Amino acid sequence: MTGATRGLGRELAGELLARGDRVFVTGRDRDAVDRTVAALGGGASGVLLDVTDHGSVEGSARVVAEQVDALDVLVNDAGIDYDTWQQAVTADLTVVEDALATNLLGAWRVTLAFLPLLRRSEHPRIVNVSSEGGSISEMTGGTPAYAVSKAALNALTRLLAGELSASGFLVNAVCPGWIATDMGGPGGRPVAEGAASVLWGVDLPDDGPTGGFFRDGQPLPW
Fold it and tell me: Which CATH architecture has domain 7-219?
C-alpha cells in the first residue's frame, strides 16, 4: 500500500492488520515508515518507497518479492496537492506537474512494478484511491492539479481493468469522500468511513465489478 504512513492509508493499514492480513506499509520517509510499523504492530512490514522514483519503486518490488510469493491487493493511495488556491486559467504548472508525477505516474509506475507479484495471486485486486474531484462530468473549475491528475488516474483505471480482465484482475477507482486528514483538513467525515469505502474495493468477490468508479460501494459519474 502506498501512502500508508498517515491519514487514510494508515487507517486502512490498521484495519487490514486487525483482521489478520499482512500489510506492506510504504512511504518515502524512513522514519515515518518505521514509526508507523511500530505503532501498527505485528503483521506490518515497512518498505521504503518513493512513487516518483523509478529506482525506489523497482527496489521496493524486489524487497516485497523476497518476502512473499504473491501479492493479492495493491492499494495506490499516495496523493498530493489538493490545490484549492489555484484555477486552471492561472495555474502554476509546476504544481500540476508534481501532482501528475505522484497521483498518476506514481500509481502507474507502482502498478507496473508489482504486476508480476499480483499475477501470482488467485484473486488479484488493484484499488486506485481517487476522488470525485476527478469526475469530469462534475468539474466546473478549481483545484486544477488535483482534479486533472485524479481524472487521469480514473482513465488509467479503465485501461488497466480492460487489459487485465482476462487474467482475473479487478481494478477499480475508489473515492473515500472528503475526510478529515492532513490533506482534507478539518470538517470531513471520520477517516474510518473513508477507509471503509476503500476496503470495499479490496474485498470485492471474484464476480465483482472492474473498471468502475465508486464511493461507499456506489457508482460515481465519470
Answer: 3-Layer(aba) Sandwich (3.40)
pLDDT value, residue 140: 96
Mean pLDDT of 159-163: 98
Catalytic residue among 146, 200, 213, 214: 146
Grid coordinates standing for 120?
A: 501470482
pLDDT digits (tens, 9 = 90+) for 101-116: 999 999 999 999 999 9
Cell numbers linked to 7:
491519514
Region for 113 from its dihedrals, namely left if φ exceeds 0, alpha if ψ lies in -120 to 50, beta otherwise: alpha
Say which DSSP state 173 is in: E
- Annotated active-site residue 146? The verdict is yes
- 98 exposure class (CB count in 10 Å sphere: 0-12, 13-18, 19+): middle
* β 44-48/23-27 pair status: parallel
